[in-house]
């Protein structure tokens, strides 16, 4: 550690600090607020696969990293048990898999917007009924919206415990990747959350 600290001091101490706050682009809201995004696009894939992806451009959510509302919603959407979207679609033989969420990369989550996507891998039969598949997804989201999060604190706490266990028992990563990840976290989170802000859930706020 002493050697590493010496190297870091030698290499980085000469970098000047201009004393300026980090740039924010929060005033550039709704970059996708255009009729062009309210459309259905058909793309011919290179390999034989049927995939339906529904994408929403949302207000920026990165300031809510202690709550992680998109992670909470993706947990509900991606649930595979009884009563889930995927369970229903599998019974219809329309879908093989379903994924929903935000990748939390700079493109999908920043100070200007956040993107939330739901992707469904369809069967040949599901491809013939992709309108109905999309309708089921929207129906499920509408149900979540109507019921609201107030009755689901137990689910949020369950997610919190699972993420905490995964954090505490995670395998050691490559040091270079770990340092790079920490440097990114330093641009996004409060100092006390540099190590945990991208993984743990801290606060339950149903209004968020």
TrEMBL record:
Where in this chain does the record put each Peptidase M16 middle/third domain?
A: 167-207
Top-level taxon of the source organism: Eukaryota
Any Pfam family: Peptidase_M16_C
| GO annotation, biological process | proteolysis
The UniProt entry's sequence similarity note says: Belongs to the peptidase M16 family.
Q: Where is the Peptidase M16 C-terminal domain?
A: 2-151
Keyword Aminoacyl-tRNA synthetase in annotation = no
Q: Which UniProt keywords apply?
A: Hydrolase, Metal-binding, Metalloprotease, Protease, Zinc
Name of the protein described by the UniProt record: NRDC protein
Q: Which GO terms describe its molecular function?
A: metal ion binding; metallopeptidase activity
